[in-house]
Task: structure prediction
Amino acid sequence: MTATPLENRLKALIRLSGPISIADYMSMCLGDPQHGYYMARDPFGQKGDFITAPEVSQMFGELIGLWAVDLWLGAGKPSPVHLVELGPGRGTLMIDAMRASRIIPEFQTAVRVHMVESSPRLTAIQWDRLAAAGIAADWHERIDQLPVGPSIFIANEFFDALPIRQFQRTQGIWRERMVGLDGEDRLAFGTGAAVLATDEIPAELRGAEDGAILELAPAAFGLAEMLADRIARSGLGLLAIDYGYVRTAIGDSFQAVRSHKPVDPLAQPGEADLTALVNFEALARAGRQSGVAVHGPVEQGDFLLRLGLAERAGRLGADKTRAIRDSITNDVHRLVSAEEMGSLFKVLAFTAPGLKPAGF
Result:
């Protein structure tokens, strides 16, 4: 298999400076300005590498839009209010959310739409699609570029792509798992010199067997803290939806997907999506430390049904053909079934103290 341009650069870097952390490997594979996975492609949909919930059905984005409106109403209708999507993909969720929010004209008047996106290719796609839908928006490469003020942050399948660190227990010591080169000059996993202190490991995991892997997500934790601090100062909230787990646990969740199939995360760097399961316990801890109210996590299926997914599906399918109704039923099943996205995906919210978001 021919090496990708990014693979050649990674190997040169490792030969020069030694093995790199999985966090650095993820950062380069996903975000390298020239060869990063997200920088110059549209990976979403049947023709891409994976499908997200907004691409499954318009109902997903519509319910998220109504969730945002409900939170805004509960906060006393602040104006202006910033509706911010982090990692907005092809813009599908925002288009559906804003269409649904038209039932409250006051919200449409007050809202200012912001898209936080680092990929030039995806930014262009989002701009074209939102413009065609009549939605005015501002784009930002980083969260710290956003204006201050009451804000509602939407993060759907965003935290899973943030870099993680892995530590593997070896002879009773937790050493960082690295990406280096094997004897045949191929990218390979190994362990480095960095050691995880005992007090950084949950007490119930300290007796794990040799070979066990513990994942930490300092980038996700730091970002959650930043968002929580903004909410604590300016109000409203964050809705985070992702696949993950509710308690810190042992396990290797680092994975790669290409053409809707799992592939070796070290093969063809820059050509596959790299992700890891989100530790919702850690995200919740970041929120509580910043003084916001934390809601959940709850399973995506339960959350969407509480928001009225079944009722929306019924209205959407009314007076439609049998084929269309069957398609809507299949979409609902995919979003809420435990065998599909319903249980694996979790939902967590931060809000200003005193607010009670829908769905929890």
User: Anything to note?
Assistant: Residues 58-74 form the longest helix (17 residues). The domain at 53-162+217-246+273-351 is CATH 3.40.50.150 (Rossmann fold).
